[in-house]
Amino acid sequence: MILPFLIIIPLLAAFLITLISGGRDSWAIVFSILAVISLLALSVFSFLSTGSQTFIYEMSGWKIPLTICLVQDALSTFMLVIVNLIALTSLMFSVSYIRQYSAPWKYYALFMLLVAGMNGVIATGDIFNLFVFMEIALFSAYALVAFGGKAEEYEASFKYAVMGSVSSTLILLGIGILYSATSTLTMAKIAEILPTLDVKLTYWVGAIFLAGFGLKAAIIPFHAWLPDAHSSAPAPISAMLSGVFIKSLGVYVLIRLFFNVFGGVAVFNEVFLVIGAISMIIGVFLALGQWDIKRLLAYHSISQIGYIIIGIGLATNLGILGGVFHLFNHAIFKALLFYNAGVLEMTTGTRDLRQMGGLAKKLPTTSFTSMIASLSIAGLPPFNGFFSKLIIFIAAIQAGRPVYAFLAGLGSLLTLASFMKMQRYAFYGKENKDADKTLAKVSTAMKWAMISLAVLCLLTSLMVIPGIRELTLDPVVAVIMNKTGYIAEVLGR
Amino acid sequence: MVIYILCFALLLVGIYGILTKRDLIKIILSLGIMGYAVNLMFILFAYKRGAGYAILVKDKAVTAMVDPLPQALILTSIVIELGITAMLVALAIRLFEKYKTFDITKIRRLSG
Predict the structure, then answer these.
(1) What is the ipTM, given to two decimal places?
(2) Chain A 108-137, residues with CB within 8 Å of chain B CB atoms
(3) What is the pLDDT of residues A45-92, one digit of tens each?
(4) Which CATH number is B2-99's, of 1.10.20, 1.20.120, 1.10.287, 2.40.128?
């Protein structure tokens, strides 16, 4: 009975903020921080207590083919933990960062709606309900991207909104076709009926969903909105978007639909591998040429999503373990990198790497945490990124696809190169005299947000130790790999 | 069958508009057309020839009914589309304030 609260609390907080705070930001901060702390506690509790079981919550007393159901299994609670963890650090970072904009209380209300939408997408077991929650999350994402109110931000938001609504329309079309074929909207029921129908239907609907949710996940060739939207948003929102948004709306839904509902069709796994490899390599090449620090990080998101998709597409136990683990790790270090970029933008007033330099002495916390995050994303031991990339690498070789292992290694090298460039230009190298006077203060909450994520970069690498892995990652992999388990558990057979 | 093809053609008109038009307002309208096509598709999925409305009233014989669920879904989807359209129009107004044009080829400060 925990899952409904994960949707109710942020929605309630969003409405309370708009109703009560009415222009006063302190109330908004109190409400949102309280909401997110309770969300994190609830999601961690539900993840630890779920294990390999599945709990179903049927809304308003109706039974399953008629009702909207919420599904609490290892995969959904794992995703909920990631979302709410990043949401908490993002709020900690926001409190002093967002003061530079007008009307911060609106920001907190939109932020809570974003969290509500993402939690809803993850928790729901009904495909139309998933669409509705996705739209809630997308709405607030469009508004938050444009929150700064500069010309570029409106431009990025418009681009994102047009592409996002085209893909949402495609998803709605796919849902319609599924409904007309199966006469149900409950995902487990659809999964039960689909194998009895023509397999061509799965291919058609799968292709539509791949385009729709692929755009949300920013897989190349559906990536064009991501660098604009993620670099224009305020830094904590970039961290939310890059860290968890593209994963909960994109990757999570792809996993849920293609593995649990469609039953892991081999053709789509091949497609995943190919587009994953393309995203991984092209994304990192595009990132290499960037001088805008947030654009550089945004292109790396595309590349790292490629790793996750390759891990998922291998469809072996080890591959999925690597994909899911990398998903968790990427959320942590990419959020941290965006906080660092936010601090750099706030203190130097620019996002251009060429105008920075020698900031290691002035911003010791930022410099140190960004070094940890850079090493994690580049895949150097002993940080978490190393282990997840290693697992994907080994899985690719074990599955008899050394090409993808080679590409993963190449992508990792190029990632290292581009982050060395970032470190060299931003924190070391010659000092920039002009940037001296505009140095703003970095607040304690911001520092703690960065330090806690940097510590997590190290701590989460412990998840590969067998004892901890059996508790955390293995149940998630079991949910994804078990083709009939989802149907059996949800429908109670 | 013909009606489904026509409905799909409407969807393609919307996509064509989004891809080729250079005016922000025309892009928003094309998105609307695309949304209508999908809504219409839902209603067609639910339609049965000669079936009545799905409301049970006293003294009314229970005969074949159209499927009421897609209609309920479409109401939700229409509301969502309304919100999206309002959001896009608001963004277009702000973009016009900043760039003094609706032409997307002139609104490109972001690149690369």
Answers:
(1) 0.94
(2) 128, 131-132, 135
(3) 999 998 888 889 888 888 888 889 999 999 999 999 999 999 999 999
(4) 1.10.287
